[in-house]
Structures are given as C-alpha cells and as structure tokens.
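Task: encode each sequence below as structure tokens.

Item 1
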Amino acid sequence: MLKLPTVDQLISEFDLALRTLAAPASSVRPHPDAHIDEADLSAEQKQHAAGLMRVNHCGEVCAQALYQGQALTARDPATREALHEAAHEEVEHLAWTEQRLHELGSHKSLLNPLWYAGSFAMGVTAGLIGDKWNLGFLAETERQVSAHLASHLRELPQQDAKSRAIVEQMHTDELSHAEQAVALGAADLPLPLQVLMTNVSKVMTTLSYRI
C-alpha cells in the first residue's frame, strides 16, 4: 500500500535536489581516471570530449531525480532499497563527470534544474503506477543510458584515456543496475513508452551537449 510522503521526507527530497544541483558531489570509490595522465588534446577534441561529459553529467543529474522520485512512491522496501543503492552510485558518477568537465575547462549544463524537475516528476509517476513498472522504468532507463555511454566510447578521442576510463566504469555500473532491477521483478515496458523515453533522451542529450 502506498503511503503519502511525510513533511520530513519532502524536506529531505528538497535538500537532495539542492545538493545535486548546487553542491560538489563526492565519491567513495577512487575516480576511475585517478592514475591516468592527461592526454595532449586539440581545442576541438577538448570541446567534443567536454560536450560528451556534460551530457553524461546531465544524465546523472536526471538519474538522481528519477530514482529519488521513484523511491518516494515505491511500495516494496526491496524496490526502495534498490533505487537508493542505484542513486548512491549515481552520486559517484556525478563527482567523476563534474571533475572531468573542470579538467577539460568546461561547465555543467545550464539546463540541469529543468531536467531534474522533469525527471523527478517521471520518477514519482512511475512509482505510483506500481513496483514492477517502477523497476521496469529503472531497467529501461539504465539500458538506454548504457547505450549512450557505449556510443560515447566510440566518439571520444582515442587518446583521451581519462574520459574513457570514467565512461567505461559508468557503463559497467549502469548495466549492473539494469540487471538488479530485472532480478527484482521488473516488467518490460510497452514499446511506445520505450520509444517515448528514447525521444525525450535525444532532446536532453542534444541540448546538454551545447548548453
């Protein structure tokens, strides 16, 4: 049975939103690129790598909002715990991509607050529909994120080993989240919804690459 969130929970969610959007993220695990030297990149290569990393950072902001919204309305404690665990690893991804953007002399997406609000609303909605669909939404999101990360590994400059190490670890983590959701009973989302998620993602990635 769904329980309405308490005032304390709503305050906590607002605090998480502020920290995600405004505070520097931290990582418990070592940064995947910590012991890799910076490559000699041209200005054009740096700009392209930064654009891709900005998309990845934006994706992690969306993931935080999505999982927080889903956990808020999840009914089963196991589902809620899986969402919290996935969100915890996404914070580390935020830290890795944020630092890499700084190293590349670039910035986070200016549209992050907009993406956060939309993703949180989608997460709350997914949770309200039911846990198997909630988990299905998590699994499909992670599959689509994994596909984006795989494409970024093909697009990043070959010599940019620092960015590639970060994206490779993120790719591994996202696949693990999808597998965990399936193991917990995720339902396969209807094809039209999968297509809609893909199209929304394309808009987000296109804009975040530039802004």
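Item 2
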Amino acid sequence: MSTAVSANTPESVESTAARGTAERPLRIAIIGSGPAGVYAADMLTKSEEVRDGLVLGIDLFDRYPAPYGLIRYGVAPDHPRIKGIVNALHKVLDRGDIRFFGNVDYGTDLSLEDLQTHYDAVIFATGAIKDADLNIPGIELDGSYGGADFVSWYDGHPDVPREWPLTAKEIAVIGNGNVALDVARVLSKHADDLLVTEIPDNVYAGLKESPVTDVHIFGRRGPAQVKFTPLELRELSHSRDVDIVLYEEDFDFDDASDEAVKTNNQIKTMVGTLTNWLVEQDDDAADPTTGASRRLHLHFLHNPVEITGEDGKVTGIKFERNELDGTGNARGTGEFIDYPVQAVYRSVGYFGSALPDVDFDHRRGVVTNDGGRVLGADGTQVPGVYATGWIKRGPVGLIGHTKGDALETITHLLADRTELPAAVVPAADAIGALLESRGVEFTSWEGWNELDAHEKALGAAATEAGPVARERVKVVSREEMVSVSRSAGVLR
C-alpha cells in the first residue's frame, strides 16, 4: 500500500534568517481537528494573508484516526444537530486546501521542536476530555464514575474499554449542564431507540442489558440557573417509555431568577418548559407518572456532600438542601436528604490536560496564554506558539463560541507574522516523510472518507438485517480505523 504524501500546495522555498519570516509564506500546524481546530484553519484560509499568498500551507494533526474531535467523541449520538455540524466541518476539510494527519499523537509521535522545525507557527486546539474533580467523601467508591468517561464509552472512543458496568437500577447524575442531560438521557433511554443513531454495537449491547429504572439529575441551584439549553431540555421528553418527574419544592425563584426570566429568552423558555411539565403532573395522584418502565427525575437546589457505600460499593448519595440567596446563588439550609442509588455520575464540567513542552495552568486546566498567545513559565510570549478553544479558555460555552475564540487567536498570529522565528521550513512532504521514518501509521483526509464510507456500509448492512434503518455503525477499534483509512492508499 502506498503511503506517499501528495501536497495540494506548492512546495515551500527554504528560507534563511537573513530573509526573515515577513518575506515568505507561512506554513502553520494546528494540533486538534475538532471544531476549534477546524474553525481556526478555515479562518486562516479565508484571511487576506492567504489571498495575498502569505500563508502557504495549513496542516491539521489529531491523535485519533478520524477528525471532528468533540463532535465524534463528546456529543450524544441522538443529538439531531450533530449532522449539521459535521457537514459544516466536512465542507471545510473537503476543499483540499487543508491537510489532515490523523493517528498522530503530539508529545509521542511529534514534539514541539519537530513542529517548530517544519512550521512557522503552531496552534494548539486539543480541547478538554477529562472530568473536573468533585471533592466529596465517597467519590472513589466502586460505582462512582466520571460523566466524560461514560460519554467516551457510548461515543465509541478508541482508547477506552469496550465494556461499561451498567448494573444499577437507581442512578444519580450530578450536574445541570448539557453533558449531564446527555448522560442521564442515554442512561434512561431504551437501547432499541438508539439503534437509529451511529451507536457502536458494543454500546448497544451494554445498554440493552441495563436494569435501570430511575435516573436522578441533581443541580445545586434553581430552575432559572441551569446551564443546559432548551434543545437539550426538550430532548428529554422525546424518550419513549420514560417519565419525567419534577418536585414542587425545588421550584424556588429569587429576585435574580425573576430578572433572568424577564430579560433572557433562553432562560424564560426553559423555566416555562419545566413549569409546564410540573403543572401537567397530577398533583392529586400519589405517583405523578404515566406508568412508564423508567423515570427521569429532575431535582434542583441539591448540593452533594457525600457518596455513601458498603463493602467499597456505592449504595446512596447525601445532599444538603439549598435555597437561593436573592442573587441567583445558593446557600445551604442545614437540611440533609439521602437517596438510595447504586451508581453516581459526576458531570460538573470538563478539564484540560497538560501538553508536553508547553506551560500549563493546572488550576484552570488551560495552556498558559494571553488571548491565544502561549506564554512560557516566565510569563513571556513563546514565539510562534498559540492556542484556541477549550485548551485556551477552559471548557465553557457552546461549540459555536469557538469561532470567536479562533478569530482572536488567528488575528494575533497574523499580527505577529513579521516577528515569527525565521527558521528553515522544509518542503510540504517533509512532515509525512518524518512520520513514516518513525513508523507512525498516520491517516489522511482521503482515509477518513474511506472510513466514513465503511461505517455507512456497515449501517446499510445492519439496516438490511433489521429491525430499523441505520445510517452508519461507528467503528470503535483504533486498529480497524487505521486499517480501513490507510486502505485509501494516497495520503494527502
């Protein structure tokens, strides 16, 4: 099989320190091919500098064999908006003016020194994949899990175990963001109803055997302070044979809540939806449900204080009841409530991972930077090194927010153009040759198209076998992903 690298851009002319970066086109590397990385690449290709011939080539690197990052491995498969985002990213990468190198691990396969030798500038867009800590007693018990780890499992991440311990009947999910809702929805949803998505076969098999009856979502503040969005909230009500249960005592609104409802349409919509669901429950009935086999409970004003257990396993969780303080923040009331559960999923946010040879802010979980310009340990700018997305600003905001983030970083990079290090930048095919010399089985954009077609073919075969139409079946094994991708032969 041929693994030669073919470039769509003219080969660069080696420069010398005497000529300086200002007089020659730039070659730029972006580490991470999720939305942050692709948006940054797209903005570079549309800049005036590209039109003036001052940016020669843009290469995207990813540690996974496939592109799209968070969209492929961090968003629930039953989200209807995924396809639209993937289509937009696909159009950017399919134009041919951005190269993709998958299955390349920064820090192992390539060092910062390698990148600085081959490129004028490097942009880190590696995101955040770890769970933020929740420091309460019992968090280490068997049955206590990170929500991000569960997301990686049900999204078919190639580097996580194929099995997940789905043995609990009663489950607590701590958090009031979109990921918490995703985790709770997937846990409570019937596996057969996920077959229409790209869910991997091993995930379907695991969820099919789950004995779950009740999933409880707990938020620290009130309904007007939730961090999820109307789309994610409405999706909860679309699950077949799953009742949504709310509790009147959790619906507390202070002055700040009332103001938020009046001035923010999104909050108004969500509070209205939650309130309507509460009203629709039969207050006179002992059980405000329809008799569905599974229930999804939404709790507010609950602050987790301890996960309880026996013989090293989760048996329950204790909360302190909160009340709003007038500003939209919560304070404890001194009242404690215990819930019997056999599993707890913390979903209180993501946290970035440190990168080799780059200074890292371990408190915030981001690369140390000033507006995307990466800083060294001494606080001075590292020439030619930048960051964008969650690794730059922390895991906050929606996917669309990364566009403005990328614009800031790209603006700074191009403003710094005349001051970038004037190192020798090899020809376009040199990076591929370096990776091959190190035995790295890197994948390409052509390879992704091959894998994409392969997953769709698996979906077509599954559709013929029944019982539902499946657009694709996601390949989980890294080895299989690489094998299928590299069968495309030519690596751009």
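Check on item 2: The domain at 130-350 is CATH 3.50.50.60 (FAD/NAD(P)-binding domain). The chain has two domains: 21-128+352-486, 130-350.
End of task.
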